[in-house]
Amino acid sequence: MTGAFPPHTAPGRFGIVNLAATAQRCAATMPVAGLCNPFTGAASLAPLAVLVDHIAGFANHLRRPDGHWTVSSELTMEFTPDAHAVLAADPATPVLAESRTVGAATATSLSACELSHRGIGIGVGTVRTFYIAVSAPPLPDDAGPDAPAPVPDALDELMAVEVAEAGGPGPLLVQHAGPAVNNSMGAVHGGVAAAGLELVAAAALNTTRADGPLHTASLRVNYLRRLISGGRAHYTATALHSGRSSGVADAQAFDADGRPALVGRLTAYL
């Protein structure tokens, strides 16, 4: 499908618009203006995980076998050293992502996408998905609520997350229940969950820095199980290394029952 998505879906909530959706090329755009890390207040690359998971996952989805559905198992993002500066030069222009499948599909499928802004490359992403047999496809409710709530502007409100009180061993981000950030299977959208990992990992490296922020260069995410929101669902991270010009942090997401659902590693540079 091409065009915009309903605002009660995760792609619609983040303003994603499909430009192409064929076996040869999938492409979509997403605005990022004003989307900031709620811990640091700095412009964030985290929401681009929603775009990567959407359009790279879409390429995998198009070649699914009959009677099967797709579930993300891995997601990666790699950004150019000037990605933040390129976006800051014209924040109102949406980011473009173009994806294609890579190699053959078996029980899993791999796709890659290129991220660009005003024709300038700012990064690449990959999504690996499992193919699972289903009796009927889990489709979202196209009608949506009778009176949908306005889509918020702040990233934490878009993601239905909240910064927890300080005092713990690391940054803590609570994932509230919010149907609009769920996928069609009732779990938190894979890109939203990956974005949560980026936010806490970046915060773990930057919250107390006095010599300039470290900018996200790469994020690698593994999906262990579905992330069900509400209850005890949250994201947290630990800095493994925070040097003068680079840093590495590990992040985890826990589901409503407190079980680990995602793990990720972020690398950042000055």
Report the major sheet. 13 strands, antiparallel
Rounded mean pLDDT is 93
For the record, what CATH class applies? Answer: Mainly Beta
Class inferred from helices and paired strands: alpha+beta
Total helices: the number is 5
CATH topology heading: Porin
Number of domains: 1
| Helix coverage percent | 10-25%
Oligomer: single chain
Query: Can you tell me the overall shape?
Result: globular
CATH-derived architecture: Beta Barrel
Q: Name the beta content range.
A: 35-45%
Spatially, the strands of the biggest sheet line up as 1-2-3-5-6-7-4-10-13-12-11-9-8
Which ranges are low-confidence, i.e. pLDDT below 50, for 5 or more consecutive residues?
Answer: none
Secondary-structure element order, as H and E? EHEEHEHEEEHEEHEEEE
Radius of gyration: 17 Å
Topology, number of strands: 13
What is the straight-line distance between the termini? 40 Å
CATH homologous superfamily caption: Acyl-CoA thioesterase, double hotdog domain
Describe this structure in words.
The protein has a single domain (3-269), classed as Acyl-CoA thioesterase, double hotdog domain (Porin). The model has no long low-confidence stretch (mean pLDDT 93). It has a 13-stranded antiparallel beta sheet with strand order 1-2-3-5-6-7-4-10-13-12-11-9-8. The chain has helices spanning 10-13, 48-62, 83-89, 155-159, 190-206; strands at 3-4, 17-21, 26-30, 68-79, 95-102, 108-117, 120-133, 161-163, 172-175, 215-223, 234-242, 246-254, 260-269. With 270 residues, it is of the alpha+beta class. Keywords: Hydrolase.
